[in-house]
Amino acid sequence: MSRSNNTEFRMYLVVTGLDDRKVLQRYRYTKEDAERLCWEGPNGIDWEERKKLQVEWLREQGVDLVEARVYDINDNLPAESWDNEAEWWENGYCAYSIWPDENYANNF
Predict the structure, then answer these.
(1) Strand pairing partners for 98?
(2) How confident is the model at residue 3 (pLDDT cuts 50, 70, 90)?
């Protein structure tokens, strides 16, 4: 937690329904996790490769990604905001989103 403004930087992969954006699951990860899982590297990583690796990791966790969407949410927010879905969903920075179900995405 930052002492100057009582915020905490966190990163999450958030799985939602494709149409309603209802949060189904949220997975917190750290910079160390991203490096260990090769989502980041010393010289950067290709954007498409990062998304592919993240989807593979979610599937390994048993996440059903059919007709789902994945958001990469990260930000500095007060700790209590990270405990309140409405607050982090509305105020957190969304780096990007992914349609893991390629069959659906290609027909969207």
Answers:
(1) 70
(2) low
